[in-house]
Design goal:
By secondary structure, the protein is of the alpha/beta class. It folds into 2 domains: about 90 residues, 60s Ribosomal Protein L30, Chain: A (2-Layer Sandwich); about 150 residues, Alpha/beta knot, CATH 3.40.1280.10. The chain contains 10 helices and 11 strands. The chain has a 7-stranded parallel beta sheet with strand order 7-6-5-10-8-11-9, with helices on both faces. Helix 5 packs parallel to helix 10. The longest helix has 13 residues. About 40% of the residues are buried. The model has no long low-confidence stretch (mean pLDDT about 85).
């Protein structure tokens, strides 16, 4: 691939990122964009095929591969070309695998997170990073939620989305109930059951914990249809946590006591 072809390829990324997950228009996997040398290397370690690299002139570290077509530009040139704004030292364009489906990750899971309308990619990446670190078995990406393989989400997860089992679900309640999960809806409502007590009472059950977007939270329909509404107890005068922070606390509580985590 010559320099003109590389320039056209990376220029074509402008406006093409998937913030909220949707199928690519060609029906194919499209591109997986890995930002930063560490995330690029983690994509390679996970076995994904690297098509090309866009590298900043400010980067003086090792390259993941000398055989990959590479375009080198100064930081301003990268911003003008891609429209991405501030970008870390490199951007790797990988072949994107098909999105996983719920039936691929739920059968062997006991504790899962489910995201409804979590559109902020940084929140999604942070949630998946916490789920991976704290031993949650899987995460379902429900309607209106950001793409875990999007550039910003993958960067924020530090590549955790490459190894954590996640899947797309258009009807996460049906998918969870079909696999025998109790559906818990996380809400800041003071009338909800405290999450630690709710989990203690379901120690032998498979549990799916649903989290909603900043501000609106979970939809009224989901709150009504859940098996229980649960909350994280907080100090007086504090009404809520950022969804990524709430997810981290919830992941710690969800973790199997028999797991190798230090308790």
């Amino acid at each position: 691939m010559d320099e003109d072809a590389l320039t056209r390829m990376f220029a074509g990324l402008r406006g093409q990122e998937r913030r909220v997950r949707r199928p690519p228009p060609d029906g194919q996997g499209g591109l997986l964009l890995a930002e930063g040398a560490r995330v690029v290397q983690r994509c390679l370690d996970a076995g994904h095929h690297l098509r090309a690299l866009l590298v900043s002139t400010a980067y003086n570290g090792p390259f993941p591969s000398s055989a990959v077509p590479t375009l080198t530009l100064d930081p301003d040139g990268i911003q003008r070309l891609t429209g991405f704004g501030a970008l870390r030292e490199m951007l790797g364009a990988f072949d994107r695998p098909p999105d996983p489906q719920a039936d691929h990750v739920l059968p062997g899971a006991r504790r899962v997170l489910v995201l409804e309308g979590v559109a902020n990619p940084s929140n999604v990446g942070t949630i998946i990073r916490s789920a991976t670190a704290l031993g949650v078995d899987a995460t379902l990406i429900g309607p209106g939620s950001s793409d875990p393989f999007g550039r910003r989400a993958l960067r924020t997860s530090m590549g955790a989305a490459l190894v954590h089992p996640w899947a797309i679900s258009d009807d996460p309640i049906a998918d969870c109930r079909g696999h025998g999960f109790a559906v818990l809806a996380l809400t800041p409502s003071v009338s909800a059951e405290a999450l630690p007590e709710a989990l203690a009472g379901r120690s032998g059950e498979r549990v799916a914990l649903f989290l909603g977007a900043e501000g609106p939270g979970l939809s009224p329909g989901l709150l009504e249809s859940a098996d229980a509404r649960v909350t994280i107890p907080m100090a007086a005068g504090v009404d809520s946590l950022n969804v990524a922070a709430a997810a981290a606390v919830a992941c710690w509580l969800l973790a199997d006591p028999a797991s190798p985590l230090v308790r």
